[in-house]
Amino acid sequence: MLRRRRHFAQEELLRTTHIPAPTAGMNLVDPASALGPNQAISTVNLVKGERGLLPRPGYEEQATHVGATDGDVRSLLAFHGTTGAQNRFFGCAPDGIYDVSTPTSTPTLKHAFGISDTNSGRGVGCDVAIAGGHFYLYADEANGYLVYDESTDTWAAGSTTVIVPADIRFVTFYKNRVWFVQTNSLIAGYLAAGTLAGAVTTFDLGTVFQHGGQLIGMWSWSLDAGDGRNSNLVFITSTGEVAIYTGDDPGAAGWKLAGLWNVGGVPVGRRLAYAYGSDLLMLTTQGALPISKLVNAETPLGESLYATRQMQPYFVQAMAEQGSRIGWEMNLHPKAGFLIINTPGVPGSVQEQLAMPYSSKGWSRLQGLDILCMEVWDGNLYFGTRNGRVCKSAGYVDDARLGGDMAHIQSVNCFTIGGFSTMGSARYKNVTFVVPRFITHGVSPIQEALARYDFDIADAGTASGTALGTGSLWDSAIWDTSLWMGLTATSEIVQGTVGRGVNVAVGVAFQSQDYTLLAGFDVMWQEEGIF
């Protein structure tokens, strides 16, 4: 009789539950035992999809041998022409500007730089349509102001006086005027409305900014629906000062300084701000800061103002290690639906990016991408590498090469671990089984279920094994859209785990070569003892 009671008591300690995939993103700020619903300790190469977590898109080659030495592709320039046939995509190498509009291993050199050095090819630009035609304006760190003319399909040096083309380091278009930044100074300048050449009227900000440094650039920030009727011009310096001006004509009475702020510091580079919806995000040493939060803050800057708030410890450490390296920038991934922040990386370490889906605003880390620069062209995200390649972010595998060469493809290695929980009990627990629930095209991923105990937050290694199921392992369909095999299937592989603790977190490491959506986990555990 006593034996039967012990048997029943033991059965009562066996527990099961379902845990959804942590689609709310990583949270490195709040206590590991107090994360919100669906938040993660760590998520690598997974972003929120429609029903769970999806591997980040893979990539395929768009162009190779960009540059004379197969070295850095330092900038990508997207020109959207008057017609689709006049669209152009350019990659900037140290020696010049190459046409990479179509997949090719022999890109055409469209403009040879007069100066080829460690800074040449690092630039910014913008599309401009005026009465005289459609143009792309570009400012290079070594070669100054250059202009692409759609009508002739050629590049040429710009023509300016007062601030000469060779001394221009940044160019933008605001309220029908071209604006410039003069090298190594706090001096901006602008041309007459509707012109691309001529005398530059200087706009000296040396008496406005209080901490010296140099002017990094200028960005338009709209306070309305984005049509520019109520837009401002935002100036940012290398010491982290921000000045905002309102008005249309800097020579008219309506032009005025709206405010001056100090954000504490910015990384090296000029691609430090990006229009995100109706806001302007700015990269600082403390995180990505929406300009609207900066302007409207009633108290000194706090971590709650930053879009990267939940990644603050990671971001601050990355800035401390990499803030002086070129490569920090932001962009959008239109097809996959997330904002991406590139970090330059450190030789000998894994380079990472941060991704924030539009829908969840939760962050994850990306790995396996050699990104030196990024740009959106024709609705797709492209990136330039350190070995002379321009790649398109698409498909389900990495390193698909020109001409359909699949000999070098690699899986996307994914990992996530959710927040720790006592599962409603202070007893010790042993997770006996974890069943990761996947929705696939019929090919179950190589996977390893994980159970972590009492705040073990280390990343997992790569899952190993053989792909399960049948079906093709690669396709070039649109990420998270096309179901090219026609049907989806579910994957449920029961996996045992080892370990013991009061606080439990579950996750999975897996390799993906096809559509693979992580929906959640079925978990079974045994409780024992009294804490």
SS content category: mainly beta
pLDDT < 50 runs, ≥5 residues: 1-11, 465-479, 481-486
Tell me the overall shape. globular
The largest β sheet comes out as: 5 strands, antiparallel
Highlighted features:
mainly beta; 3 helices; 531 residues; Jelly Rolls; five-stranded antiparallel β-sheet; 44% strand; 43 strands
Summarize the structure.
The chain is mostly beta strands and 531 residues long.
Give the helix/strand layout:
Elements lengths: L1 H11 L1 E7 L4 E2 L12 E6 L1 E3 L4 E3 L3 E5 L11 E5 L8 E6 L2 E4 L8 E5 L10 E8 L2 E8 L3 E6 L4 E4 L2 E2 L6 E7 L2 E6 L4 E4 L7 E2 L1 E4 L10 E8 L8 E7 L3 E6 L9 E7 L10 E4 L2 E6 L2 E4 H6 L15 H11 L6 E5 L4 E5 L9 E6 L6 E4 L5 E5 L2 E5 L5 E4 L18 E7 L9 E13 L2 E2 L1 E8 L14 E2 L19 E4 L2 E2 L7 E9 L3 E13 L3
Parallel strand pairs: 2-3, 15-19
Antiparallel strand pairs: 1-43, 3-35, 4-5, 6-34, 7-8, 8-9, 9-10, 11-12, 12-13, 13-14, 16-17, 17-18, 18-20, 21-22, 22-23, 23-24, 25-26, 26-27, 28-29, 29-30, 30-31, 32-33, 33-34, 35-42, 36-40, 36-41, 36-43, 37-39, 38-42
Question: Can you describe what's shown?
Answer:
This protein has about 525 residues and is mainly beta. It has a domain at about 1-55 and about 410-530: Jelly Rolls, CATH 2.60.120. About 5% of the residues lie in helices and about 45% in strands. The protein is built from three helices and 43 strands. The strands form twelve sheets. Strands 1, 36, 40, 41 and 43 form a five-stranded antiparallel beta sheet that branches. It has a five-stranded mixed beta sheet with strand order 2-3-35-42-38, with no helix packed on it. Strand 32 (about 375) and strand 33 (about 380-385) form a beta hairpin. The protein is globular.
